[in-house]
Each structure stands twice: as C-alpha cells, then as structure tokens.
Write a structure and sequence with these properties.
Elements (H helix, E strand, L loop, with lengths): L8 E6 L14 H15 L4 E6 L17 H25 L4 E5 L8 E2 L2 H9 L3 E5 L9 H11 L4 E6 L20 E3 H6 L7 H10 L3 E5 L5 H6 L6 E4 L1
Parallel strand pairs: 1-2, 1-6, 2-5, 3-4, 3-5, 6-8, 7-9
Antiparallel strand pairs: 8-9
The structure holds uridine-5'-diphosphate.
Subunit structure: Homohexamer.
Keywords: ATP-binding, Cytoplasm, Kinase, Nucleotide-binding, Pyrimidine biosynthesis, Transferase
Catalytic activity: UMP + ATP = UDP + ADP
Length: 239
C-alpha cells in the first residue's frame, strides 16, 4: 500500500551546491543520482514535482562584484549556470527512467523549452518532473526567489527548500551545539527572530501567497519522502 502523501504538488528548490557533493565545484554524478532517486520515490507516490535549480556550484553573480564585473552581466552568467545544472539533472532523471522536461526563463530554444506556465502545468499533471532553469530571467534576483515565484504560479501546495542543514535552528548548529531545530515555525516568528529561511524577496513572496516552506536536508536518505508524507523532518514554516 502506498502511504498517503500530505502534498500533491510540490516545488523543490535545489541549490547548485546540492549537486556538488564533496567536490569543490561542478556536478557530482553520485550526488545527483542520490537526489534523483529521492525524487523518483515521491513521483511514484503520485506527487507532482517542479524543481528550481540554482547555479552557485558553477557561477554566482553577486560574488563577482568583487572583481568589478557589471552586476547584471554577472547575474546573466549565473542564470546560464542554472541552465547547465538543469540539463544535467534532466539527463540524470532520464537515466533513472523518470520523465522530465526543462523550461528556461531565458529563451535557449536549441536546448530547452522556454518557460510557459500552461505547458508546465500540463507536464506536472502528466506526472513529468518540470525543471525550471534560468531563475526568474532577471538579474538582481536569486533562485530562491525564482522558486517562490514558480511555486506560486504552479499552485504548489508547498515549497521544499533542500539545504545542507536539516532544518531551521534556534542558532547556527555548526557554531552552537545547544542549537535546537524547530519542527514548525510561523512566518511571523521567523521574521521576528530574524531566522534566515530564504532571502527576503523570496520569503516575502511565499508569505504573501501563503505558500508554506519546508527547509530540510536532502543528503539524508529518504528525507524527501518523509517530508511529503508529513513526517517530522526538517522545519515547516507556515502561515
Ligand atoms: N540569478 C539571477 N536571477 C535569478 C536567479 C539567479 O540573476 O532570478 C543569478 C545570480 O547571479 C545568482 C546565480 O544566478 O548568484 C545563481 O543563483 P543562486 O545564487 O540563487 O544559486 P544557488 O545558491 O541556489 O546555487
């Protein structure tokens, strides 16, 4: 018997770093296959999955400011990095027998479809994983913001932010051993306690659209399935 899932349609935000594994940069095949395996598990439970992928493992626009590069140009390079990750992810899904499509906010018709909301929703309904590349298509934003935007547009039940830490803590668990993970926290509490869940623009959009967020660590085997089944995994940030 398949377990009842809490969510029917999710938006998963994967940072570029999530694909690096223990490497210094780029894409680690074993790591990407581990993530694909976890997504496959929930697709098989009938969950519709949209993914926004970051690009920080290849290029991060903001940091190049130090090199005096024009910020918008650097950001477009960052968005192009997300397209590279999206293609790698799609390839990995296909090798695992999972149907996936890439839609890019930056038109690149030879290699990916251009983002089109109705088509994306149709793919989700067909059980295909939709990988959203190219961020929002605009400089000065992050892929966290792209994730909240696509999550809201796709009418997702929740946004799942996969990170290196397995939730939101009372303090930085790497520095403070007494730090405790929140099982749940409201948007208002997170704001008043100045807990960093996502960047301010992304957080504000989720709050405004009442799109709850679960912050969790995807490195743990089966974590994604536990989250979508509503088990005590990660931190639920709710209205
Ligand atoms: N980026 C952008 N607009 C967007 C999304 C991303 O300009 O809507 C650029 C920005 O330079 C960012 C880079 O793409 O630094 C990679 O995205 P991000 O840092 O969010 O990736 P992650 O940290 O999730 O790997």
């Amino acid at each position: 018997m398949t377990p009842q899932t809490k969510y029917k349609r999710i938006l998963l935000k994967l940072s570029g770093e999530a694909l690096m594994g223990n490497d210094a940069f780029g894409i680690n095949r074993e790591t990407i296959m581990q993530i694909v395996g976890q997504v496959k598990e929930i697709v098989e439970l009938g969950v519709q999955v949209g993914i926004v992928i970051g690009g920080g493992n290849i290029f991060r626009g903001v940091s190049t400011q130090a090199d005096n590069m024009d910020r918008a140009t650097a950001d477009y390079m960052g968005m192009m990095a997300t397209v590279m990750n999206a293609l790698a992810l799609k390839d990995a899904f296909e090798s695992a027998g999972v149907k996936a499509r890439v839609q890019s906010a930056l038109p690149m018709q030879q290699i990916a479809e251009t983002y089109a909301r109705p088509k994306a929703i149709q793919y989700l309904k067909e059980g295909k994983v939709v990988i959203f590349a190219g961020g929002t298509g605009n400089p000065f934003f992050t892929t966290d913001t792209a994730a909240s935007l696509r999550g809201a547009e796709m009418n997702c039940d929740v946004m799942l932010k996969a990170t290196n830490v397995d939730g939101v803590y009372t303090a930085d668990p790497k520095k403070d051993p007494s730090a405790v993970r929140y099982e749940t926290i409201t948007f208002d509490e997170a704001l008043s306690k100045r807990l960093k869940v996502m960047d301010a623009t992304a957080f504000a959009l989720c709050r405004e659209r009442q799109l709850n967020i679960v912050v969790f660590g995807i490195a743990k085997e089966g974590a994604l399935k536990r989250v979508v089944c509503g088990e005590n995994e990660g931190t639920l940030v709710h209205c």
